[in-house]
Each structure stands twice: as structure tokens, then as C-alpha cells.
């Protein structure tokens, strides 16, 4: 594997995670529990789509086959996506969305901080820019965790259940392969073993303030590095890619 | 392009500065800090812009407006570059523009109070209501009518208002 091949995979991972989570946010549009939250979730989605565009465009440029951000978003199949499994988890109830967003934004927040020092200028710029936005996302999900966890008996139980259910997808966030190995050596990527303790600190602090219990690590789902996903991604793509597939090469 | 030669960098910057923000028409793209640079490379005009937020849907409008403005001034040899570094910050909004925002009904960003904290309490500040000037206001949501604004409510005049949040 060449550095460029690894770089394409790495950019797709970053770009796909933002894209797929962004699409999940878009699914909330007009269905939020209150108007303010409807707007908040859509706004978070918008930030994520913007972030994704930078990485997909860059991946297309490095590849050099003329694929644009749109080609990569709308014309790839399930197995060609490298987003973290967490990002494709269905929205569920509002609390479930909050937990998923917390797990992911605590990850990207800590990752982007380090990645903003990447030797690759485009990745460093992407990370520095995205970090400012993700800080707000993390704050949003963190605050709701505390409100719901330390809320009523019902809200506490429901969000604890979501924490337990989603825990098995947290392992996939820190999975690495030869792509990482190659790019870490070039000072482009970050060793995720360095991110894990930072993520743990963020999560532990919020869970504690939310009076929630951290589940014990048990069976962990994996597969995103190899494009292996849950059935849910297929359904998401079916909706997201419908228009460009039904009407190829149409323009606004 | 003989026409381009008559246009100095300063002159091009001047007329591009007149382009208003599509969402907040009282301030220009230069005052907002989105217009970063104008360069002349031989006869080619290079205009550099940067997005406020990664997903800012106004970026396409910015580009289209810059394109028409250049063409209006008989410049056809140009390139519009979008850069992400250094990342846009509310500190780039000029003082004059902050006052214009206030008059328009948007509470301007309070300098040096970037919400760096990841939990509430860490970024608390008093935002003045742009309508009745009271400081007795409360944050409703960090996400408002556009990506760059938060939603506040005034506890004195009971009006909701936008706050241009710091990044």
C-alpha cells in the first residue's frame, strides 16, 4: 500500500463518518421533540456535511480519477463506505440520538485536536476548522446527557438503556489497520491509542455528572475498516442516494 | 485582458467589499471576514474566501455574487479559491460591523469569550438584548436560525433574538 492509497482510505473514513452522521441528523428534520432541538440537530447535520465535503473532495483529488465529492457520496456502495459503525446507528428516540452523538463527538473532538497538527496541510486545516464546530456538538450532547440522565426516573432509565445498547459500537471507533500504521509513521494520522484515554476522560466525566453507569467492556462490534457494516447503513444509503441514482447526472 | 490591468488590487477589493452577506445584508463579506484576499497574477485575478462554518450554505451565493461583481467590472479572467486555513473566527468581524449587527437586531459576538468549554457553565456570559438593551437574557439553544447564530430570549422585553456565537 502506498502513502496515497492509505491517505485516500483515511480521508474516506473521516469524510464518511461525518456524512453518515450528518444524514442521521437530517432524518430528524421536522421530527424534533421541540422546535429548538429540531433546529439544533439540523444545524449539527449541516456542519457535518460541510466537514465531509472537504474530506471527500480531497480523497477524490488524491485518487486522481476525476471522482468528485458528489460521486463519492452518491455513487458508492455500502462496502465502499468506511464510516464508524457508531455513525450509522439509527436515531431511535431522542435520548438514543444524544448518546450516539456524545460517543462520536467525544471521539472527533479529541481526535481533531491532535489531528490539527497533522503533517498533511489539508487534514490539519480540516481538523482545526471542524474542531470549532464539534466543540458545540459535544456540548449539545453532553448537556442533554446530564439533563436526561439526572432527570426523571423514566428519562434516566431510557438513556441508561441507550448507553448500554450502544456500548458495543465504541470499540470500532479505535480500530486501526495498516492504513494507520503507514500514516502514523508519516506524522499524518494519529495513533488512536492516544485518543482512547482522552475519550475515556470525557465520557467518564459526563456519565458521572449524568448519574449514569459506564457499562463494562464486553463483546465489541467491528468491521468499518473493511467496509463491513450493519444492515442499517444500506437503508440509510437507499434514501440518501435515491435521487442521484434515479436521475443520474441531473443538476440543480 | 487589458481591462484587468486598469484594476488594481485595492480597487478590486473595494468593489468586492460592497457585496452584502446574503443572510445579513447590513454587513459586507469583507466586514464579515469571509473575503480574505485579492491577488493579481499577471492578468488573472485570484480571490480568496473562507467559510464561516464548514457547512455554511451561503458559500455558493458568495461565489456567485463575487463572479457577477467581477464580470460587472469587466473582469473575466479570475479564479475564486476557498481556503479552510486559518479557520474563520468571529474575531475577524470588524468593530463597525459589530455595531451594524446590533442595529439589525442580532446580538454581536462578545470578543474573547469563545465557548471552548465542553459543558455548560464553562461558557456563561451575559449577552445584551439588541432590542431593549437589557442584560437579563437567557440562552435557549446554541443552534439558531443559521449555523453561525445561537438563540436567546430576553427576560425583560420577552423577545427572542439571535446571538452571533463565537468560534
* Total domains of chain A: 1
Number of separate domains of chain B: 2
In the sheet with the most strands of chain B, the strands line up as 4-7-6-5
Tell me the radius of gyration of chain A.
18 Å
Give the integer mean of the pLDDT values of chain A: 96
Q: Any idea of the CATH class of chain A?
A: Mainly Alpha
| Main beta-sheet annotation of chain B | 4 strands, mixed
CATH architecture of chain A: Up-down Bundle
The CATH homologous superfamily of chain A:
Ferritin, core subunit, four-helix bundle
**Percent range for β-strand residues of chain B:** 15-25%
Oligomer: heterodimer
- Most extensive interface: A-B, 38 and 29 residues
Explained architecture:
The complex is a heterodimer of chains A (252) and B (167). With 252 residues, chain A is mainly α. Chain A contains 11 helices and no strands. Chain A has helices spanning 3-27, 35-63, 69-74, 85-88, 94-115, 121-149, 153-166, 178-185, 192-209, 231-240, 242-246. With 167 residues, chain B is α/β, with parallel strands linked by helices. Chain B is 25% helix and 22% strand. Chain B is elongated. Chain A binds chain B through residues 36-37, 39-40, 43-51, 53-54, 109, 121-122, 124-126, 128-130, 132-133, 135-136, 138-140, 142-143, 146, 202, 205-206, 209, and chain B through 51, 53-57, 83-88, 115-120, 123, 140-145, 147, 151, 165, 167.
Write the topology of this structure.
The complex is a heterodimer of chains A (252) and B (167).
Chain A: H1 3-27, H2 35-63, H3 69-74, H4 85-88, H5 94-115, H6 121-149, H7 153-166, H8 178-185, H9 192-209, H10 231-240, H11 242-246
Chain B: H1 2-6, H2 9-16, H3 29-32, E1 35-41, E2 44-49, H4 59-72, E3 78-82, H5 95-104, E4 106-107, E5 137-141, E6 149-154, E7 160-164
Parallel strand pairs in B: 2-3, 4-7
Antiparallel strand pairs in B: 1-2, 5-6, 6-7
